[in-house]
């Protein structure tokens, strides 16, 4: 699951959620940037704005969360066949015939998520319309 997705800008709600999950939030979360720069199609600077934020990546968040999660509860190499749920639990059937019941399912299977396709097929990835470089 490492290396999936794009970079993200952190915010207070993310830091609070990470702490609630048992993750230590410190300077290793990402790269601090002090400003934003907008470039035109010709590469020339159209303007700058001072804005202190920490940029991170899905890969970094994945590793931080995985390190704080019980290894015995983390499954890899499984292909989800079906997901069903009732008011109290979720049931997962995998292609290898294994089945799992839980209070919650965290499906971190990437941009082309098989789980999302089943539980929320109306939600499709959409290009945000911009790109960004993180420069130290």
Description:
The protein has 136 residues and is of the alpha+beta class. The chain has two domains: 1-70, no CATH class; 75-122, no CATH class. 19% of the residues lie in helices and 29% in strands. It is built from three helices and six strands. Strands 1-3-2 form a three-stranded antiparallel beta sheet. The longest helix has 11 residues, at 58-68. The two termini are 26 Å apart.
Separation, N- and C-terminal Cα atoms: 26 Å
Structural class: alpha+beta
Radius of gyration: 19 Å
Q: N-to-C SSE series? A: EHEEHEEEH
| Tally of helical segments | 3
Biggest sheet statistics? 3 strands, antiparallel
Oligomeric state of shown chains:
single chain
Shape: extended
Query: How much helical structure, as a percent, in the residues?
Result: 10-25%
Q: What's the domain count?
A: 2
Strand order within the widest sheet?
1-3-2
Strand content: 25-35%
Give the mean pLDDT: 87
Extended strand count: 6
Low-confidence stretches: none
Give the structure's gist in a few sentences:
It is built from 3 helices and 6 strands.
Summarize this structure as a short list of keywords or feature phrases:
19% helix; three-stranded antiparallel beta sheet; alpha+beta; single chain; 3 helices; extended; 136 residues
Give the arrangement of secondary structure elements:
Elements: E1 7-9, H1 12-20, E2 31-39, E3 45-57, H2 58-68, E4 80-85, E5 90-94, E6 99-102, H3 114-119
Antiparallel strand pairs: 1-3, 2-3, 4-5, 5-6
